[in-house]
């Protein structure tokens, strides 16, 4: 099975609670829509979780979302991951920044 993991590095901006937000897009085999999960786990933690799940014969890939929920997928059904660390955005005039 070929598996593609795409990590897009970007500026790391902490959220108001001091956590980084990471968006993970998951392509699941035989499912027409991709899953999109926002998590406070780092890109490296997400990639490591998938690697560990794939090592097991019946491994399960688990991601914790921002609302303390979980997304659980059989690891051998993951077609691809696209991991993006969210950037802070500047809004307003005169250097006023809101993220």
TrEMBL record:
Query: Pfam families attached here?
Result: DUF3107
Q: Which InterPro entries match?
A: DUF3107
UniProt-recorded name of the protein:
ATP-binding protein
Organism source for this protein?
Answer: Actinomadura fulvescens
Its lineage reads: Bacteria, Bacillati, Actinomycetota, Actinomycetes, Streptosporangiales
